[in-house]
Amino acid sequence: MTMEYKNILVPVDGSKTAENALKTATEIAKRNQGHVDLLNVIDLKQFSMSFGGMVDANGDVVYQSFEDVNEYLEKLQAEVKANGLDAVDIHARFGTPRTIVAKEFPLDHHTDLIVMGPTGMNVVERALMGAVTDYVTRNAVCDVMVAR
Q1: Exposure of 16 by Cβ count < 10 A (0-12 exposed, 13-18 middle, 19+ buried)?
Q2: Residues 87-139: pLDDT tens digits?
Q3: CATH, domain range 7-146
Q4: Cα dist. 12→38, 104, 118, 119, 135 in Å?
Q5: Residue 46 CA: distances (Å) to CA of 42, 74, 94
Q6: Bridge partner list, 11
Q7: What is the pTM of this model?
Q8: H or E segment and range at residue 23
Q9: I need a labelling partner for 67 at 20 to 30 A (CA). Which of 48, 57, 77, 82 fits?
Q10: Pairwise CA distance, residues 87 & 36, whole Å
Q11: HSE (CB half, 13 Å, CA atoms) of 135?
């Protein structure tokens, strides 16, 4: 039985593994005339910890971080479109990455496949993203592919 995945979620965090997952998802979407949602989840708790707990959730630093994320997502969106897939949207959310990726976003957007990398950018982010990937593969409301 061949699955046709029409709504594909790709959580991205700036890492090479996430961008490789995006390439995989783009090819799947092109084969199935599907749609890709690019998502970056900004974890304010983790964000605050990286600044020693000194940044509150409504500061200019958080706003600038959101702007940087949006710029990054727009860059990825342009790359996907240049690769022949016009059906790509970008999303940024604040919250806990693992629950947003595994449950909330897929339910909101009728996702039928999540394609993600196995780890994040640096040692700390790899530990966090690895935990996110592990959680998503065990708890997602749809199929999950870990692209290596």
Answers
A1: exposed
A2: 999 999 999 999 999 999 999 999 999 999 987 655 555 555 558 899 999 99
A3: 3.40.50.620
A4: 7, 16, 11, 11, 16
A5: 8, 23, 11
A6: 39
A7: 0.86
A8: helix 16-31
A9: 82
A10: 6
A11: 14
Distance CA 136, CA 1 (A): 24
Residue 38 bridge partners (DSSP): 10, 90
Distance CA 39, CA 31 (A): 21
Q: 98 and 129 in contact (C-beta within 8 Å)?
A: no
- Residues 74-96, mean pLDDT to the nearest whole number: 97
Residue 75's Cβ-count burial label (10 Å; 0-12, 13-18, 19+) is exposed
Grouping H, G, I as helix, E, B as strand and the rest as coil, residue 10 is strand
Please state the φ and ψ torsions of residue 83, each to the nearest 5 degrees: -90, 5
What tokens appear for 108 in the block? 């909101």
Structure tokens at 42: 């900004």
**Cβ neighbours for 29, distance < 8 A, ≥ 6 positions apart:** 5, 8, 35, 36, 85, 87, 88
Closest Cα partner for 26 from 101, 81, 70, 63? Answer: 81
Structural domain boundaries in the chain: 7-146
